[in-house]
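Backbone-to-sequence.
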């Protein structure tokens, strides 16, 4: 990194202190072309020119001047001079943008500059982690999240929602320095990273509509804000606002007319709830993010012609427009650039159109665009303290795509190549015939399943717990098996747990993108407080799901036993690729499954290509369900939860289960039905206690 003291700064341009330029080569000074301009200092200019110590670099006409807010002050011999920072090629910069929905991050590396960009960067890695609002997240939790980010960095820009004051920035910087003690740290608000991503150093307004909302404008060194006060006091126009307005409308219609809107049915479907009362109970316990995630249902209803939902969307857009107009007025911007960021604008064109339409009435000359850069790239750019324009080049992903395409679960099944031409009966016959591959795969895996039972039983016997970790169908199957253990075997609810990428919402709504981060899987297990006696079974049909592989790696590092259950026989990779962001990580792990040496046991269920290519909810899902049934049931048998083939620890929590408990006791104790029932009632329906007395 090279720092240039500046003699003066006027009208948006720098005046370089000539005396210091003698220490730098012409080649280095040439690299500054495009964002330096020697100006307003004739005496120094002539002196430098006569001594051939200064190369004149005229600013590109297409670039805005470098504004004063970004100049850093440094102590010099003559005055406190501003400085320009130059990022060396090879420097590794981490950009982090956190809020109430997620923590998005990107790792970039400085490159040799070319063209008009004052700095160029190659994207090395990127991902998403759990939320990190500074006001809502404890320092301990922030450290846990940051610990999953790349460690080998030279700079970090960390910009979080809730980081509003200088004290906030200092405390956040201190947390960052504990994680990256040798890095240059820049901290601030997510508003700052949004401005940087959308406007570079130029003037304009950024409108953010995600789970919450905010409007931030800049002109020169002046910043104006509106909204963004949190979901209780503000955030009008965000996902929470739209969703809560829709839910209130549903309740109001019920109270006034004892009728249910069509929208109610859509909400019940989205939440997998059965009736209005269940919806009310859900709302009373749901947090901000759970409610905000209903926004797509609001947009879907409006698109389908629901006028009441459209009114809510129009109201959200109207409030955001009012904020935009207020900010533009305070900044005296008559034709501002207005950049839209946030999930609502990115995902729902109906919201963009509503906003544009309303803004045009009162601010007709505004230039509305969708921000091209993600806020985390803005965070990385702010960390570099570079010039007016930076270019980011995406990392290659072809190897990852090719590796995934080579998985057995992604191959085409030659026996189902003409599904659309089959009759219903022919289709059924193909499905039934394909099930023989499930049976054969399970038969081949008998030895591995036996070892899995032994590992799980030993772990539970020693005070450990069993965790299933998966994404999509695999995760749902794991959660299903875990949920059936307490009533079937009378086990504590925490003895067998299911962990699914995307959380509980992913049980009833697809959240495929949630599986893409290894660090998210690792953090999910941290939340479950994994310890040495535990055992973790990672379920991934392809053997490549990052969320699962990250969880397995974290479990093993904590001393827990690990089992990988996959339908891909070509499970191979690297034994230790390091942490996310390490030099070898991206190349070594891109698209590859976990190595067999990274887990204690691999259970392979080679069911072959699916009838519907890539749809692992079919044969792979069936084989996975049977395998988990075998493992969990086998472990419970080993723990003495069964006598003969009868459950003796079942929870008699329903009419069906009480009847079963009576019949089990009657058979094992050789007594009649009524006597068995009386014994169970006397022991508060504790089947094992009643058996031991008899």
């Amino acid at each position: 990194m090279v720092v240039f003291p500046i003699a003066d700064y006027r009208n948006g341009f720098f005046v370089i202190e000539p005396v210091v330029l003698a220490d730098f080569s012409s080649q280095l000074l040439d690299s500054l072309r495009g964002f330096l301009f020697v100006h307003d200092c004739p005496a120094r200019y002539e002196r430098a020119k006569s001594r051939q110590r200064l190369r004149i670099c005229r600013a590109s006409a297409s670039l805005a001047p470098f504004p004063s807010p970004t100049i850093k002050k440094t102590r010099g011999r003559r005055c406190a001079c501003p400085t320009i920072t130059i990022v060396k090629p090879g420097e590794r910069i981490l950009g982090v943008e956190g809020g109430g929905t997620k923590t998005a991050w990107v790792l970039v590396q400085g490159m040799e500059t070319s063209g008009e960009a004052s700095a160029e960067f190659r994207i090395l890695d990127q991902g998403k982690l759990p939320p990190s609002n500074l006001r809502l997240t404890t320092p301990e939790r922030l450290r846990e999240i940051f610990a999953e980010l790349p460690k080998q960095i030279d700079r970090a820009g960390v910009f979080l929602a809730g980081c509003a004051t200088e004290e906030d920035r200092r405390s956040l910087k201190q947390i960052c320095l504990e994680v990256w003690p040798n890095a240059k740290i820049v901290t601030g608000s997510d508003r700052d990273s949004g401005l940087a991503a959308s406007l570079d150093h130029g003037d304009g307004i950024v409108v953010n509509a995600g789970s919450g909302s905010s409007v931030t404008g800049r002109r020169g060194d002046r910043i104006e804000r509106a909204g963004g006060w949190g979901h209780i006091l503000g955030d009008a126009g965000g996902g929470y606002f739209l969703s809560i307005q829709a839910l209130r409308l549903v309740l109001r219609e019920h109270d006034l007319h004892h009728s249910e809107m069509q929208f109610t049915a859509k909400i019940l479907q989205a939440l997998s709830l059965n009736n209005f009362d269940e919806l009310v109970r859900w709302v009373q316990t749901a947090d901000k993010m759970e409610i905000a995630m209903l926004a797509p249902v609001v947009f879907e209803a409006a698109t389908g012609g629901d006028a009441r939902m459209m009114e809510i969307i129009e109201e959200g857009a109207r409030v955001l427009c009012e904020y935009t107009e207020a900010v533009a007025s305070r900044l005296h911007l008559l034709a501002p650039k207005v950049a839209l960021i946030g999930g609502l604008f990115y995902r729902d064109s109906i919201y963009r159109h509503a906003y544009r339409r309303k803004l045009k009435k009162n601010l007709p000359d505004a230039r509305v665009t969708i921000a091209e850069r993600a806020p985390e790239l803005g965070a990385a750019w702010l960390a570099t303290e570079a010039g007016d324009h930076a270019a980011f080049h995406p990392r290659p992903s072809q190897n990852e795509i090719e590796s995934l395409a080579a998985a057995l679960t992604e191959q085409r099944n030659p026996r189902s190549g003409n599904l659309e031409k089959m009759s219903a009966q022919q289709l059924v016959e193909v499905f039934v015939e394909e099930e023989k591959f499930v049976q054969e795969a399970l038969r081949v895996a008998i030895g591995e399943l036996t070892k899995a039972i032994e590992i799980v039983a030993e772990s539970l016997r020693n005070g450990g717990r069993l965790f299933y970790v998966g994404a999509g169908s695999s995760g749902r199957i794991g959660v299903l098996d875990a949920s059936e253990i307490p009533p079937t075997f009378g086990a504590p609810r925490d003895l067998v747990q299911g962990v699914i990428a995307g959380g509980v919402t992913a049980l009833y709504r697809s959240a495929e993108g949630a599986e893409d981060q290894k660090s998210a899987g690792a953090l999910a297990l941290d939340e479950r407080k994994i310890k040495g006696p535990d055992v973790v079974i990672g379920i991934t049909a392809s053997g490549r799901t990052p969320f699962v592989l990250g969880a397995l790696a974290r479990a093993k590092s904590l001393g827990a036993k690990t089992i990988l259950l996959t339908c891909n026989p070509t499970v191979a990779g690297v034994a230790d690729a390091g942490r996310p962001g390490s030099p070898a990580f991206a190349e070594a792990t891109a698209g590859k499954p976990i190595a067999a040496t990274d887990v204690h046991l691999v259970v392979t269920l080679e069911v072959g290509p699916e009838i519907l290519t890539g749809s692992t909810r079919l044969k792979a899902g069936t084989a996975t369900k049977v395998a988990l049934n075998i493992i969990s049931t086998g472990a419970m048998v080993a723990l003495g939860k069964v006598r003969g083939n009868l459950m003796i620890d079942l929870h008699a929590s329903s009419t069906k289960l009480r009847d079963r408990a009576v019949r089990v006791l009657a058979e094992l104790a050789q007594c009649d039905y009524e006597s068995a029932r009386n014994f169970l009632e006397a022991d508060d329906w504790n089947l094992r206690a009643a058996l031991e007395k008899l």
